[in-house]
């Protein structure tokens, strides 16, 4: 008789993984039906799960209100710049974060206004109203039917020149040039669980198990990696972005992580297929130390099932469908990961 050293394989978790990433659409539909959630969730390219807040200056103006509404409809987190918070709340509602400031008064444009901000949209302009005046809600200006003789109330030089100059100055001091925030786990939205999911070696008979969850100002990728049943990898991956992320014009990505001394892989996928070509970059971590990891696009290695592809197309930054983090006992082409230890692991991502 031969001894069976294989550990028990969790077929249920295997099916759940495929269902979460909609590899088996029928099971995904049943899951949504029995859970009472009939919404077909698809991560969008926008949204708080991947972007910092957006400041909208002039948010209570005619254009500004429309911009705020459109951004909110697309799940962008918005910080509205208003002169009067009470009036701003009445006009914009309770879901929009307000910041009281005046672009013509630079002292009001404090660093707190730019905390967690990834972009600034300026919708300011001089105020125009009927010569004989208007109501506090500017009902005559917005009614759009009867003509009133207009007059410019504010000074164009103060608002359109000096005010915008002040806004550009504070933005330039806090926004890093040439960078776009993709994921911000310091200021995440509540739907991170609907974006990231585990893809462990259970998909090939292994018993490793991982998860990703939010902790203080970071996301924690952790669990247990096992080499039993010829396994030895854990990973977390996003569902496919719709539309795909377009990073044309950028040279690469940058991560801020705190690991456990092991070597991890950062993976980008330019195909919508579940089991397609991936572009990989391996990086070492320092135990319990925050480090910045730069991933040049030109350094990404085309890989299919841990084997490098010599004739693959170059990485295309215009169609990034998914992002993945992995810990594996293997590097590429059968080589072992020199900084890998089976057992518990943890990687924080800021």
TrEMBL record:
<dbReference type="InterPro" id="IPR016040">
    <property type="entry name" value="NAD(P)-bd_dom"/>
</dbReference>
<comment type="similarity">
    <text>Belongs to the CIA30 family.</text>
</comment>
<dbReference type="InterPro" id="IPR013857">
    <property type="entry name" value="NADH-UbQ_OxRdtase-assoc_prot30"/>
</dbReference>
<dbReference type="InterPro" id="IPR039131">
    <property type="entry name" value="NDUFAF1"/>
</dbReference>
<feature type="domain" description="NADH:ubiquinone oxidoreductase intermediate-associated protein 30">
    <location>
        <begin position="183"/>
        <end position="349"/>
    </location>
</feature>
<protein>
    <submittedName>
        <fullName>Complex I intermediate-associated protein 30</fullName>
    </submittedName>
</protein>
<dbReference type="Pfam" id="PF13460">
    <property type="entry name" value="NAD_binding_10"/>
</dbReference>
<dbReference type="GO" id="GO:0051082">
    <property type="term" value="F:unfolded protein binding"/>
</dbReference>
<dbReference type="GO" id="GO:0010257">
    <property type="term" value="P:NADH dehydrogenase complex assembly"/>
</dbReference>
<feature type="domain" description="NAD(P)-binding">
    <location>
        <begin position="58"/>
        <end position="171"/>
    </location>
</feature>
<dbReference type="Pfam" id="PF08547">
    <property type="entry name" value="CIA30"/>
</dbReference>
<dbReference type="InterPro" id="IPR036291">
    <property type="entry name" value="NAD(P)-bd_dom_sf"/>
</dbReference>
<dbReference type="InterPro" id="IPR008979">
    <property type="entry name" value="Galactose-bd-like_sf"/>
</dbReference>
